[in-house]
UniProtKB/TrEMBL annotation:
GO MF terms, alphabetically ordered: oxidoreductase activity
UniProt source species: Lucifera butyrica
Name of this chain's protein: Nitroreductase
Gene3D superfamilies: NADH Oxidase (3.40.109.10)
Domain Nitroreductase: 7-176
């Protein structure tokens, strides 16, 4: 058996059966998430578990409402149509028995330190800000979570689209740590997949994405 088989078990799952996920399993997945690397060992992540179908449905409604509200800031008809059309993808989590919200917390960066000093040009600071290590920490934790979920037989789907409604979602669930600088960075539905046979989207060949310097 391929020793990396656990990686290839992960798929983006958008349809689930109506079967609850035991909390002990969810806790195991969250524990796996916390073993991700993080810069300075800041562990600037926080996970919120929602296993109430009514609440999950209301969160989907908040995303729909925010999608509609943001449309008024677009002027190009093609982009308006595309953005409105994206809302069905941004709410697929409503069919899952569990929704996991991944929050990113404050993280001190070199760019932030230089911005505070007020000497370096903002253009240079923005360039230094591009790696965004604080979000990378949370992304690493999310990947661990999803790999653990797949290994336990569950499906997930990495989602960042709905985060444009992050403020509304946080207010609805009463997540007070947003006052400490935490914000919704990603989310994933979680549950037993409705199907077990998936097609693999094509991947770019290694020679296209790999550079070896000797």
């Amino acid at each position: 058996m391929n020793q990396l088989e656990f990686i290839y078990k992960r798929h983006s799952v958008r349809k689930f059966i109506a079967e609850p996920v035991p909390m002990e399993h969810i806790q195991e997945m969250i524990k796996a998430a916390t073993y991700a690397p993080s810069g300075k060992n800041m562990q600037n992540w926080h996970f919120v578990v929602i296993a109430n179908k009514e609440k999950i449905g209301h969160i989907a409604d908040l995303v729909v409402a925010k999608n509609s509200a943001l449309t008024k800031y677009l002027t190009d008809e093609t982009k308006i149509k595309a953005f409105k059309g994206s809302v069905s993808y941004h709410t697929v989590f409503k069919g899952a028995p569990v929704l996991i919200l991944a929050y990113a917390g404050p993280y001190d960066t070199t760019a932030g330190m230089l911005r505070e000093a007020g000497i370096m040009a903002e253009e240079q600071i923005r360039e230094l800000d591009r790696p965004n290590p604080g979000v990378q920490n949370v992304a690493a934790a999310m990947e661990n979570f999803q790999l653990a979920a797949a290994s336990l037989g569950y499906g997930t789907c990495w989602m960042t689209g709905p985060t444009y409604a992050g403020e509304e979602i946080s207010a609805y669930i009463g997540f007070e740590r947003t006052q400490e600088g935490y914000y919704l960075a990603a989310m994933t539905p979680l549950g037993v997949p409705a199907a077990r046979e998936w097609t693999y989207p094509s991947r770019k060949p290694l020679e296209q994405i790999l550079t070896v310097i000797e």
